[in-house]
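Please complete every field before forwarding. Incomplete forms are returned to the sender.

SECTION A: IDENTIFIERS
Entry label: holo-643
Bound molecule: adenosine-5'-triphosphate
Molecule representation: SMILES string

SECTION B: INPUTS
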Amino acid sequence: MAELGMSSAVTRRAFSVRKMTGFTAVAIVCFIMLYAPLLPLVAYSFNSGSSIALWEGFSWRWYEAAWRNELVQDAAFRSLFVATLASTFATALATMAALGTTRTRAYRGLTAIYAMINQPLMVPEIVTAVALLIVFAVIKTATNYHGLVYLITAHTAFCIPFAYLPIRARLEGMDISLETAAADLYATPWKTFRRVTLPLLWPGILAGAMLAFVISLDDVVITEFVKSPGQDTLPTYMLGQLRRVITPEINAISTVLLTVSAVMVTFFFFLNRKKM
Amino acid sequence: MNSAKGGPAAVQALNVSKVFGEGDSAVVALDNVSVNIRQNEFFTLLGPSGCGKTTLLRLIAGFDHPSNGAILLEGEDISGLPPYQRPVNTVFQSYALFPHMTVAGNIAFGLEMLGKSKPEIDATVTDMLRLVQMEELKDRQTSQISGGQQQRVALARALAPHPKVLLLDEPLSALDLKLRKEMQIELKRLQHETGITFIFVTHDQEEALTMSDRIAVMSAGNILQVGTPRDIYDHPAERFVANFIGETNFFQAELVSVKKGAGKIKLASGKTITATVPDGLVANGHITAVVRPEHARIVEPGASSTLVGTLENIVYFGTDTHFHVALGGEEAFIVRMQNARDDAGKFSTGMNVGITIDANAAQVLRD
Ligand SMILES: Nc1ncnc2c1ncn2[C@@H]1O[C@H](COP(=O)(O)OP(=O)(O)OP(=O)(O)O)[C@@H](O)[C@H]1O
Ligand SMILES: [Mg+2]
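SECTION C: PREDICTED COMPLEX
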C-alpha cells in the first residue's frame, strides 16, 4: 500500500502542469484579466464626485445614497427574499436528487437523469428565459396572479444543478460502509439517514445552498424576462439604471454585491475542504 | 463450547450460492456452500483473496442476499430479514467508525437504535469501554485515536448490543505485526469473556491456526474442508488445503487398502506405510499423499528407512534444521528436525540418506 501511494505521488509530480514553462506567466495574466477591471469599480464607489471616471476624493457618499434610495432598498429586499427561498427549495430538491442518483443501484436511465439535472447548465440562459416568459405569460393571463412565485419558481429551477453538484460530490466521497455499519447496528433506513448520512452530508448541503444563493442573487437574464412590473431585483434595477445617467451609486451597490459573493464563495471553499 | 453442542447451530448456510452480475459478466462468488457454525465457537473462514469470504459474511449480516439457498440463525431462516433486524454485528475491515461521534457515541449507537433506556446504555458503554481498555479515551473524536484504538472501538461497538454472532472481516490486517499479535490474544479473550459466536475472516494461515476453534478453508467460492486447526494442518483432505497451510511434501503412492479412514499406501520405494484417508475414497490405485516436514526423520539408509535419496541441502534455522532430499522427482523432500546438541555433523550434503515417516503422519489427498 505505502509503496503504491509513493509511486503514484511521484508520477503525479512528474506530470505536474505547474512545472511547465510559462505556467506562472499565464496564470498571472489570467488573474489580472479577471480581477483588474474590478479595481476601478471598487475604487470609484468611494468617489466624492459624481463621475465614474474622474477621481475627486474619498467619501462614503454613494453608499449612503444607495442605502437611502427606496428603489434600491426595495430591490435588495426582493433579491434577498427570492434568493433565500429559491436556494432553500433548490437545495432540498438537489439533496433528494443526489440521494436518488448515488444511493441506489445503477438503473436504466440514470445517465439520462444526470443529464436532465445538469441541463440548465447547458441550455443557453436566454432560451430558458424566453421559454419561461411564454409559459408564465399564459399562466398569468389565465390566473391573473402576478406575484413573486414566478420568480421564485424560475430561480429554484436554475439553482438546482448548482446545489446538486457539491452535494453529490460529498455523497460520492462518503464511505458507504458507514451507512452499512449503521444498518448493521439496527438503524432503519430512515434512522441511518438522520443519524449518519445527513450529519456527514451537512457541509455539502450548506455549500450547495450557498452556491445556489449566490447564483440566484446574481441572475439578470431570466429575472428580467420573468418578473412582473415593479418586481426589480438588485441586478435588474442596476441594469435599468444603466439606461440613464450612471453615478458611482451603481459602483457602491456592485461593490456590496461583490463582497457578499466573495464572502460566500470563501465560506463555500472552506466547507468543501472540511474533511469527511 | 461443549455445553451448547446439543442446540441448533449458531449459523447455518444451506446450499448457498451467490452470483454477481448476469450473463457473460456473471461472477460466481459462492458456489453451493453449506456449513454449520456452532454456538460459542471461534470459527474462521480462511482462504486466498477473492475466494468469497467477505461475500459469505455479507450474506450472514444481510448486506447481500443469496442467489440460492438459505441462511439460518439458531435454526431460523433469516434470509429475508434486512441487516437491521438481524441480531448479528460486524467489525469492518475499515472499522467504519462514525467520524461525527465520540468513542462513547459510537459504542452507544447500536443500543440507542435498539431503544434501550439511557441508564442501561450508559452502563453497557462503560462496561464495553472497560472490556477494551478505552475508558480514558471515551470522549475523544474517532479521528483522534490510533489505528489499534480504532480497532478496539469497532470491536466494542459491535459487541455492545450483545449480538448472537459477531462477524469480523480481516479486522487485524491493517495493524502492524506487534499490535496484531496483541489483538489476536485480545480477541480470544473477548470471545471467551462474552461467550459470543465469532466468525472471523482471514487469509493468514498462522492467524487462523492460532486463534480458531474450527477453520473452514475456502477456495474459488467453495468450502473445501472444515475442521479444528489440528485436523486441517495434520490431515488436509485436498491438495489446495495442504498447499495453502504450512509447508508440505507431496508424493505419489498407491492406495492398497482402506478401513474406516485408515489406509495402507505403497510408496515408489516398494515400502508400505499407514496413512489417513479422507471419507469416501476407495482403494483404487494411484493417489497423492502428503507428509509435513516435521513428521519425517533423516536416518542412515537401511532397512528401517521408507524412502532413500541424496541429501541436497542442509539449512540451519537455530531451533531446527531443514534437510532437502532429492528422491528423483521434481521437488526435493523436506525433512525438518529439531536440533539436539549431539546432532552436529552427522549428515552432510551429497550423502545417501534414508527417510522414515512417522506412523499415521501421511495423509492421502482426495484428488
Ligand atoms: N459487488 C460485487 N460485484 C461483482 N463481483 C463481486 C462483488 N463482490 C464480490 N465480487 C466478486 O466475488 C468474488 C469473491 O469476493 P469476496 O469479496 O467475497 O472475496 P474475499 O474472499 O473476501 O477476498 P479478499 O480476501 O480479497 O477480501 C471475487 O471474485 C469478487 O470479485
Ligand atoms: Mg474480503
